[in-house]
Amino acid sequence: MRKGFFTAALLLGATVLFIRFNYALRDHDAIIQLCDTCPPGFELTSENECEPRNLYMMYNSLNNKGVGGLKTALPEVRAGFSPQQIDLGRYLFFDPVLSRDGTISCATCHDPDKGFSDGLAQSVGIDNYVLPRSAPSLWNVVYLQRFFWDGRATTLEEQMKGPLYDAHEMGNNPDSLLATLNGIEEYQKLFSIAFPERRGHEITLPEIYKAIAAFESSLISLNSRYDQYAHGYADALSPKEKEGLNVFRSFVARCAECHTPPLFTNQQIAVLGTPDPEGMPFDAGAQIPMNDPTFRGGFKVPSLRNIEKTAPYMHSGRFKDLRETVQFYTDGRGHAVPENEELIIHWHIWEPNLADHELDRLVDFLKTLTDETFKPKIPDQIPSDLNSKLAN
To answer: In Å, what is the CA distance from 364 to each residue of 69, 226, 227?
Structure first.
């Protein structure tokens, strides 16, 4: 009896070892290895999830109230992604195979070397189609509640479907996207690693969206010289930059009432009356998705994080540099509104009559919001490229 018991135990143990061994092989069978540690600024939990860690978590003040103090807390953040899901999303983000013809990736319009924008006044999509708006930055996008310039999406997953399936951006469709990724053996292996609890072997749309959202959620920029100053290091800013901060937060300039620290956005829609590109029709903005004429010409207040890296500026890319942009706000309420338009301009847009040196100091301060410490690494190789090489 005892001999039979030990035999059964040995067989059971061998079976467990065989399963674990096969699982380990499956996890390491992929040529590209997914990272098993969290990106900087995150801590790995016992549940294999990445939780954010930053100094703003020390504060419990309500966000987006008033003009935002230097020690204002951040909004609640969506977390819970695994390191593997984040890293898989990184590969997807830089892979042009997600587009209809393999020419456009997410990074085409959101280049990490350009503040996760593309340096164009109007982005260019598939077949060299010139789009009507510029590409917004993705830094700290995990904290945002609205997406697109007109605020029509409320989740990262909803947002990414826009460019993926827009005929003029990436030009793909769900069926084609699934067929393409499921036809790449390396991606099948990587998705199995990133989603170990999945049922079946096919890559699914929710997995694709979740992986890209996971990567985008890791794009954190909260360690600029401004942040060091806000957390108590007085010498992080120069005298001119401090003067610019005072102008920014003043009730004359009123910049901070819309660009509220620490995200430097109040996440609202504002009608500013900014000019459209020459030769382009008037952009109704948020009026269309909200079906509300009071939002005609309204656009989401963007974050100013890494704003130095994302020229040109505004939804239309009309202003070539920061000095030109801040000048717009002191030139008078509604001065750029077309003659045939009657817009309800946001009440913060008035005539502050800032002096030239005050505008210069504002620009000095805005440059202190630059922080690319946690800029992710562009993959050396992508699964689709590897797949084509293996096929040859």
So the answer is: 20, 11, 15
Residue 214 and residue 247 in one domain: no
Q: Tell me: do 243 and 363 sit in the same domain.
A: yes
Per residue in 327-337, pLDDT (tens digit) is 999 998 999 99
Closest to 135 measured CA to CA, from 169, 97, 99: 169
d(CA 246, CA 249): 5
**Distance, CA of 197 to CA of 184 (rounded, Å):** 21
Least confident of 130-139, 176-185, 273-282, 321-330: 273-282
Q: Side chain identity at 23, as an amino acid letter?
A: Y
Whole-model pTM: value is 0.89
The two tokens of residue 337 are 């509104």
Centroid of chain to Cα 212: 10
3-state secondary structure of 50: strand
* Helix (H) and strand (E) counts in the chain: 13, 4
Dig out the tokens for 110 from the structure.
């959101």
* Inside any domain, residue 268: yes
Structural domain that includes position 309: 225-369
Other Cβ atoms less than 10 A from the Cβ of 141: the count is 20
User: pLDDT-based confidence at 201, cuts 50/70/90?
Assistant: confident
- The per-residue b/e assignment along 229-264, b for 16 or more CB within 10 angstroms, e otherwise, is bbbeeeebbeeebbbbbebbbeeebbbbbbbbbbbb
Please spell the DSSP secondary structure of 206-229, one letter per residue: HHHHHHHHHHHHT-----SHHHHH
Any domain includes 30: no
Assign residue 305 the CATH number of its domain. 1.10.760.10
- Residue 170: inside a domain: yes
Pull the structure tokens for residue 228. Answer: 């060091």
Is 46 contained in some domain? yes
What angle, 0 to 180 degrees and rounded to 10, lies between the N-to-C axes of helices 356-366 and 322-330?
A: 130
Do residues 357 and 276 share a domain?
yes
| Contact (Cβ atoms closer than 8 angstroms) between residue 302 and residue 366 | no
